[in-house]
Specification:
Number of helices: 3
Helix content: 10-25%
Strand content: 35-45%
Shape: rod-shaped
Radius of gyration: 28 Å
Strand order of the largest sheet: 1-4-3-2-5-6
Distance between the termini: 71 Å
Order of helices and strands: HHEEEEHEE
Largest sheet: 6 strands, antiparallel, barrel
């Protein structure tokens, strides 16, 4: 018993602590900053009486030179004169892309769609 007690008294204790300044330097802040670049948006005309709201996720499809936005399997909007590079980018990605409704203009029946 005497030996064990002596060893307990003489051994060095381990001190654990976190250097908060070092942790702050090593922590990435990429996700704490708000991106300033805005996604590419295109204007589309709402088809019929489709009910779109900000934040809706759409499927954007290019077929025969026309670009349509689908919600599920229903065409909810048709893009007004899409640019050639927009059509080419959608065709290059397999003919479809994802889009998000950024803003709905109810009076003019137009919608702004950002393309991912």
């Amino acid at each position: 018993m005497m030996g064990a007690e002596f060893l307990d008294k003489t051994k060095k204790t381990i001190l654990r602590h976190i250097d908060t300044k070092r942790a702050a330097l090593a922590t990435s802040d990429f996700f704490t900053k708000v991106p300033t670049d805005q996604p590419r948006c295109a204007i589309a005309t709402i088809s019929g009486d489709a009910a779109l709201k900000d934040g809706d996720s759409l499927i954007v499809e290019s077929r025969n030179g026309a670009v349509n936005a689908l919600l599920g399997n229903t065409i909810v909007a048709r893009f007004d004169s899409p640019s050639n590079d927009l059509v080419a980018a959608i065709v290059k990605s397999g003919g479809v892309a994802t889009g998000t409704v950024e803003r709905v203009h109810r009076i003019s029946k137009k919608v702004e769609v950002s393309l991912c």
